[in-house]
Design a protein that fits this description.
Radius of gyration: 20 Å
Helix content: 55-70%
Number of strands: 2
Number of helices: 10
């Protein structure tokens, strides 16, 4: 079933059991359950037993070992401004937290896809996220050119496909991030050529 339906059901259960839960936290549970309500309820119970009667987004991502979406926003921000050092430092921080490079690049591709569907009113309904997060996607997608997003997805997908055969996985992902940071310069419109002034002739 849809993540939205799972979230609504979890909200009902939380209210019934006097549990205070952030909507973003329930969305993460819904995504992790992959369309299975029974799995979502099981994860919900697991989080309640660990975190108590107050379920926060931060508690859920820590307990389920999920990378905070904030990192993906930071990586795209760095790519859009062509800031290679910022992208590499953010990726280093992700590795220090114990996350795998393959899962990271897979998550980044999902993030880029969500930014792409956020650019058009016809496809925005394909974005399954909490309202506050959806707003973040709309903001970032509005400053991300379509050409950039498509080329970034191509770069990310190529990196993900060849990740397991790479002898140096860290460098493999870092090269992909450097390519992403170079994309913004390549997708910028050509500056208009100045018309010669009469005095120049």
């Amino acid at each position: 079933i849809r993540i939205e339906d799972i979230v609504n059901r979890l909200m009902y259960v939380a209210k019934k059991e006097s549990v205070s839960a952030e909507e973003e936290a329930l969305h993460i549970i819904g995504q992790k359950a992959d369309g299975a309500l029974r799995d979502a309820l099981s994860i919900f119970d697991q989080i309640v037993s660990l975190a108590g009667k107050k379920i926060l987004y931060r508690d859920v991502i820590e307990n389920l070992n999920i990378l905070d979406y904030e990192y993906y926003f930071k990586i795209v921000e760095a790519a859009l401004s062509g800031d290679i050092p910022a992208a590499l430092l953010t990726y280093n921080e992700i590795l220090l937290k114990g996350f795998d490079g393959h899962n990271f690049i897979s998550g980044l591709n999902s993030h880029l896809r969500d930014l792409l569907v956020s650019r058009d009113e016809a496809t925005i309904r394909l974005l399954e996220a909490a309202p506050a997060v959806k707003q973040r996607y709309l903001q970032q997608s509005s400053v991300s050119p379509v050409d950039f997003l498509i080329k970034a997805l191509e770069t990310g997908s190529a990196c993900e496909l060849s990740y397991k055969s790479s002898k140096n996985p860290r460098l493999h992902v870092e090269l992909a991030l450097m390519r992403l940071c170079r994309l913004s310069a390549q997708t910028q419109p050509e500056p208009e050529k100045k018309k010669p002034d009469e005095h120049d002739l």
